[in-house]
């Protein structure tokens, strides 16, 4: 194993370790608990569900997942949760029919059981393919109507659901295998959050759809345009992309990451403003896509022989592609967008996140940083790694105001000019940047956090935080060790 492939593998493992956002078994446990509790509450208000509720209590987690992660069932459950919270949950309700039918469909999921042809892809955690281009069953029509709400007649664009064939099944199996071999931890984890796959041809404002995740509108399902994507490398990348959205949808059912979801921000590669929610979800994806790209650059020869060299495939350029990026553009690659979003979510936009959201962003940033440094770029001048023995000081002319109750520090840079928000960890590193050498800074940092964090992890957090402050032009290296700010 080369040093670079070892770096990729370490990041792959790191991205499944966070208990709230990385560890899929824990995420699933929380989602299933939410749905089981929901059944209990719904049955108290919809008395016809009493028998179904008793049956749910006897289900294994495997059976419960088949029931609750079905897209038709999940749509009904989320509507029931909304009705419950609004105080309007009452009979008759769609769930009174959907839940008993879902229990009757076991061991299949409800939607899966209504497909005219049952097609599965993926060996480890099989996904079923939508076959509802010509729906004849009521639940199949529900799925088709949900699709129309996103891509079809009811949307601003136009879209068509495609019936799966042997060629599409083969492409999906190859791409799932490729993703699972490139990123056996984080890639495989994202795939486990996908229950079903639908094939489509669609256009929306801005161009042709390559892939999509419908969220609450089409839960547990991702959409792929196989003909547009063409090659297994980019299909695998889209499986990862949309699977990550599914994973974060599941994780945020129990852990809020955004404090002000209505707030919007601007990214330089889009003309429209994004919600802060979209920025967080996109950062999650771009971090993983950058790792996916790094994995392809360090891929074992056997993968190239099995799936072809990525460079040999013709593909339209897009930031998520591992075959063809617009490298001439400042933000033409996933890693470029991950850097931008990470820097701003750690600083200028940090106040829009919850404490858990800031922890989430920091975890993603720290997981990707070694890959970014060792594979995508040489350490720039002023980077922590390039001069570890030098000193660091605050940039001249900054204004700062602490919020102890909010556990953050606001810093205004007249040169920008903008206000940046530092969480407690970044605040500590900022205060330690008083001209002392990096080694002195490290000792002081370990004295403060050493009782709560293992030394190696603390050193990594210090380097990560200091690198972010340098990039944000809040801290700069001194010209000579010992210079004072």
Overview of the structural elements:
The chain has helices spanning 3-14, 24-45, 50-58, 61-68, 71-85, 95-105, 110-113, 138-150, 166-182, 186-191, 226-229, 232-251, 276-297, 301-307, 334-346, 355-376, 424-432, 438-449, 455-471; strands at residues 120-121, 127-129, 158-162, 196-204, 207-208, 211-213, 221-224, 264-265, 274-275, 391-394, 399-403, 408-413, 418-422, 434-437, 475-477. By secondary structure, it is an alpha+beta fold. It has four domains: 22-109, no CATH class; 114-254, no CATH class; 256-377, no CATH class; 383-485. A hairpin with a 4-residue loop joins strand 12 (408-413) and strand 13 (418-422). Mean pLDDT is 86; it is low at 378-387 and 480-485. InterPro entries: AKG_HExxH (IPR026337). It comes from Pseudomyxococcus hansupus. This is HEXXH motif domain-containing protein.
- The value of Rg in angstroms is 24 Å
Structural class: alpha+beta
Total separate domains: 4
| Helix share bin | 40-55%
Largest sheet: 7 strands, mixed
Percent in strands: 5-15%
- Give the low-confidence spans: 378-387, 480-485
Quick one: how many beta strands? 15
Mean of pLDDT: 86
Termini Cα gap: 44 Å
Helical stretch count?
Answer: 19
| General form | globular
Protein name: HEXXH motif domain-containing protein
């Amino acid at each position: 194993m080369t040093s670079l492939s070892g770096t990729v593998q370490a990041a792959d493992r790191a991205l499944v370790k966070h208990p709230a956002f990385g560890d899929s078994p824990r995420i699933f446990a929380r989602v299933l608990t939410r749905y089981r509790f929901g059944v209990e509450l719904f049955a108290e208000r919809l008395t016809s569900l009493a028998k179904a509720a008793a049956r749910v209590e006897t289900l294994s987690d495997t059976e419960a997942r088949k029931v609750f992660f079905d897209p038709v069932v999940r749509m009904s459950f989320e509507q029931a949760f909304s009705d419950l919270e609004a105080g309007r949950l009452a009979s008759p309700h769609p769930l009174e029919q959907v839940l008993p039918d879902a229990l009757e469909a076991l061991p299949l999921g409800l939607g899966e059981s209504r497909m005219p042809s049952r097609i599965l892809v993926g060996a480890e955690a099989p996904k079923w393919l939508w076959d509802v281009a010509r729906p004849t069953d009521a639940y199949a029509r529900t799925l088709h109507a949900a699709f129309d709400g996103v891509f079809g007649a009811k949307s601003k664009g136009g879209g068509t659901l495609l019936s799966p064939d042997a060629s599409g099944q083969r492409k999906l199996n190859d791409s799932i295998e490729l993703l699972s071999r490139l990123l056996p931890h984080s890639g495989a984890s994202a795939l486990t959050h996908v229950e079903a796959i639908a094939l489509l041809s669609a256009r929306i404002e801005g161009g042709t759809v390559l892939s999509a995740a419908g969220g609450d509108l089409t839960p547990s399902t991702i959409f792929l345009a196989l003909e547009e994507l063409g090659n297994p490398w980019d299909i695998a990348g889209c499986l990862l992309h949309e699977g990550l959205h599914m994973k974060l949808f599941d994780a945020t059912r129990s852990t809020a990451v955004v404090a002000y979801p209505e707030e919007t921000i601007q990214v330089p590669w889009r003309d429209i403003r994004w919600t802060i929610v979209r920025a967080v979800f996109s950062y999650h994806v771009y971090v993983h896509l950058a790792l996916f790209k790094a994995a392809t650059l360090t891929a074992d020869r056997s993968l190239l022989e099995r799936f072809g060299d990525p460079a040999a495939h013709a593909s339209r350029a897009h930031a998520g592609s591992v075959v063809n990026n617009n490298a001439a553009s400042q933000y033409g690659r996933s890693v470029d967008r991950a850097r931008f979003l990470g820097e701003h979510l750690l600083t200028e936009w940090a106040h829009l996140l919850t404490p858990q959201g800031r922890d989430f962003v920091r975890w993603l940033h720290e997981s990707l940083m070694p890959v970014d440094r060792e594979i995508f770029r040489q350490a720039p001048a002023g980077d922590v790694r390039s001069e570890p023995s030098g000193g660091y000081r605050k940039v001249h002319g900054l204004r700062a105001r602490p919020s102890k109750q909010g556990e953050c520090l606001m810093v205004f840079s007249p040169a920008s000019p903008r206000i940046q928000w530092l969480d407690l960890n970044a605040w500590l590193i900022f205060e330690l940047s008083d001209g002392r050498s990096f080694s002195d800074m490290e000792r002081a940092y370990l004295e403060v956090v050493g009782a709560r964090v293992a030394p190696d992890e603390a050193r990594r957090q210090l380097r990560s935080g200091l690198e972010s402050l340098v990039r944000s032009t809040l801290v700069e290296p001194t010209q000579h060790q010992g210079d004072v700010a």
